[in-house]
Fold each of these.
Amino acid sequence: MKRLSFDDAMKMYDMEFFDLAELADAKRKSLHGKKTYFNSNRHINPTNVCKDVCKFCAYSASRKNPHQYTMEHEEILEIVKNAHARGITEVHIVSAHNPTAGLDWYMGAFKKIKAAYPDIHIKALTAAEVNFLAQQYDKSYDEILDMMIDSGVDSMPGGGAEIFDEKVRDYICKGKVTSDQWIEIHKKWHQRGKKSNVTMLFGHVENRAHRIDHMMRIRDLQDETGGFNCFIPLVYQTENNFLNVKEHITANEILRTMAMSRLVLDNVPNLKAYWVTSTVNLALISQEFGANDMDGTIEKESINSAAGANSANGVQFDEFVQLIKNSGFTPVERDSSYNELKVW
Ligand code: V47
């Protein structure tokens, strides 16, 4: 299939539902057959103290969530120790923008984890956090990215991308990393030979054109660097935040958006159905709409569960495997670089 232009994609979004699914499924099959990847990971959110106020966020300490916390390194290490004993291969560490914790608190945690568990992949610091650390401690992006590598960070998660359209972005998260800065940070990371992911927060005040524009900006960077492993559309969770979106996006629109992601992002190898924000059931159905990755067992999740998602305690490994199998796909446990560890 030829590469989609913006106008092609807008037209395609409106196609008959199952015809669109079939196109996305054909692309998925050509890349991954019936394999669905997942990993055994642990999410850690070490602080919820944030100097920024994103309207969609229910996680950071605020009027709606007055319970501030910042973990000591010992606490973080204890979590990693227990998760390691259960066999996880990755920690996914995303924090808020805590102006008093100190640069050493951020980097020191990675150093200690790497020293104690060199086999665990550390996926940490979104571009929003990198931008915050650079501004707060008067460093360049290059300096922060090099520090991350020296401290043992292996890859970057895709958070903070939200929606790149500047008008929407200004409305939902003014003051945080801009779209151009987000892209610049990932470009610099990729130029260091490192991989990252990229997200899109949808189902709030944005429209289809904003989503396609978001995907196209990602596609352009991927053409240049090839550094993105995975695209992750995040379904906006409505509770406990200041965005005040009354109506939840429909399942039909979520699945269409998954399919469009697979078709527009022809150069990003993996499309993740993040069960935390879509529900497990819709993530399973997303496999028929182009998705080939289901993230992981997660164990504990604080950002989306604060906004209403049913994800606080993750899912059991065996249950995860069985769910993928029962939906007619082949569960493949992967490492963080998408090397296959076990076909179940
Ligand atoms: O950037 C915040 C989102 C993201 C809400 O790289 C919300 O593998 C929905 O980046 N409703 C952080 N979403 C999570 C993230 C992530 C998740 C899973 C996998 C990966 C990966 C990365 O959470 C933020 C923001 O877009 N978020 N509030 C909300 N109310």
Amino acid sequence: MHVIYGGTFDPVHHGHLRLALEISDRLGVGQVSLVPCHIPPHRGDTGASSEQRLHLLTLAVADEPQLRVDERELKRSGASYTADTLRQLRNELGPDAPLVMVVGTDAFGGFDRWREWQQIPELAHIVVVRRPGSELEPSGVPARLLAEREACDPEALSSQPCGLILELNPPLLDISATGIRERIADGRSARYLMPDSVWFEIRRQGLYGACTAGNF
Ligand code: ATP
């Protein structure tokens, strides 16, 4: 089973990394691929460039064999669309291998506005992670899709290549990249919200307006 977890990772933090490990354990897979998006179609400008976000992410997973970075969206020109990424992966994996994408309820809530969203269940399973404060609108398309395609347990995902939606409710760390960017811009420390390797690099390069002087 191949599992991808996409995001802006602007910057990557312990909330992302803990979730990726939880998913890896719960699905019983050896590795989860973190896929940083190039130009997020649904967002404004990012705080750091694609290359900088990728560099920080690479530092973050350097010592963790259960996590890897998949750079494919940064290598494509133009916007990052999940359907394109999944189609590319499906071509590489062949028709029978289970392929899983992980999203939070915040992102899945707008699923029916994603490009070619109706194709996505034909390409992959979806693991929807419940995030406090981001409940799905009960009468909305994403909630209906979840009810129609719901997998009863993680094992079900191994039985077919795509098409199921599994809702998981793992413990989550209350950390957001937005909060981190605000904190750094205010001149406050973001240490312990992300691996030290990432925090030190942000300081070293002065990313997100971080002060490069003084003690780390
Ligand atoms: P921002 O605050 O800039 O929106 P973010 O911290 O929410 O960023 P993203 O890169 O936008 O991070 O998120 C990528 C994925 O990670 C999304 O599916 C989101 O639901 C999930 N995610 C973000 N923060 C956490 C967290 N603390 N715990 C678990 N999942 C998270």
